[in-house]
Amino acid sequence: MPLRLLVRPSSDRTRLSGIDAEVVVGTVCDTTVMRRAAQGCSVIYHVAADYRLWARNPDELYSTNVDGTRNVLEAARIAGVQRLVHTSSVGTIAPDPKGVPVTERSPSSLEAMTGHYKRSKYLAEQEAMRYARAGLPVTIVSPTAPVGERDFRPTPTGRIILDFLQGRMPAFVDTGLNLVDVKDVARGHWLAATAGRVGERYLLGAENLSLKAILEACAEISGLPAPRLRLPYPAAWLAGAFSAGVAAIRRTAPSIPMEGVRMARRPMYADCDKARREIGYLPGPVRPALQRAVAWFRESLALPDY
Questions:
Q1: Is residue 264 over pLDDT 70?
Q2: Please, which residues have CB within 8 angstroms of residue 120's CB and are 6 or more apart in sequence?
Q3: What are phi and psi of 107, to 5 degrees?
Q4: Res. 303 pLDDT band, cuts 50 70 90
Q5: Domains in the chain and their CATH numbers?
Q6: What is the rounded (10 degree) CA torsion for 88, 89, 93, 95?
Q7: Phi, psi of 24 (to 5 degrees)
Q8: Which of 37, 72, 221, 283 could be disulfide-bonded to 184 (CB atoms 3.0-4.6 Å)?
Q9: What is the pTM assigned to this prediction?
Q10: The 43-46 sheet, strands edge to edge
Q11: What are the residues facing 171 on neighbouring strands?
């Protein structure tokens, strides 16, 4: 099946080398480009998002994540696609106060979202559901915390690994994440397009791990020492507030985003049984993905291999 990719004008297209695809240059915020890109497509995967836990202008997150999603959905409706897979996030579900793994049925609301990124993704998901109710064949997938190679920006999940490798994580907070191999997330998207039910959402995750366990796994893989100091949440909050103050003075991004600190207050574990039952989603272990991530960061950034 021919592949068409929407690529931002500022993107480094050398990263697409070896991929046989037609490239349309533009953004999801441009309605004209989106409608041209969607024309003739049978399946659309909407994976674009502004994935930042801090932005000098938070409106940028809403423009891309909410308005951009609406543009994609409308372009898909006009093009008459057979299926649209909308990439949401586990972050649109409020974490359980006791750390119980969330499911697709767990309660959530806009008021429960921590920070602009989560709010924008929650609102985008509501747009996808609205179009699904109106008849557009939309299926929603909600990845947890993907890890693997080629994390160029990097994502906040990749930043944890990179900060560890660069010795910038002397302590950890008592929290946890559901990690998943990015390759399993890609397979989950395809399964959602071929076997997912319209109007349903599917959590795509793999293993629930404490942050301490994640860092210990990175230590075993890299040969670097794992941090031993557990930082109480109030101390983490103060560190984030100090970082935000310094960043405001210097007009730079904070090294410790307050949104990330607030997100770490409760572990974000997930139960992905629905995806296993309904679309045949069978994720593998995450350690190979962590190994690939460590190797890729070291090679691409010429980090020392101790």
A1: no
A2: 50, 61, 62, 64, 65, 66
A3: -70, 150
A4: confident
A5: 4-300 (3.40.50.720)
A6: 180
A7: -110, 125
A8: 283
A9: 0.91
A10: 43-46, 83-87, 138-143, 201-204
A11: 229
Tokens at 104, concatenated:
């697709």
- Output the six-digit token pair for 44: 């659309």
Please indicate whether residue 58 or residue 261 has the higher confidence score (pLDDT).
Answer: 58
Taking the C-alpha atoms of residue 140 and residue 72, their distance in angstroms, rounded to an integer, is 14
- What order of strands is seen across the sheet that includes strand 176-181? 145-147, 176-181, 207-210
- Locate 172 and state its tokens: 């950890």
Residue 205 predicted with pLDDT over 60: yes
> 49-90: per-residue pLDDT in tens?
998 877 889 999 999 999 999 999 999 999 999 999 999 999
Distance CA 177, CA 67 (A): 28
Structure-block tokens of residue 18: 């070896």
The answer to whether 184 and 283 are in contact (CB under 8 A) is yes
Which two tokens mark 105?
A: 């049925």
Hey, what are 231's tokens? Answer: 């930082």
Closest CA to 181 of 219, 212, 150: 150
Name residue 100's amino acid. V
Q: Are 138 and 128 in contact (CB under 8 A)?
A: yes
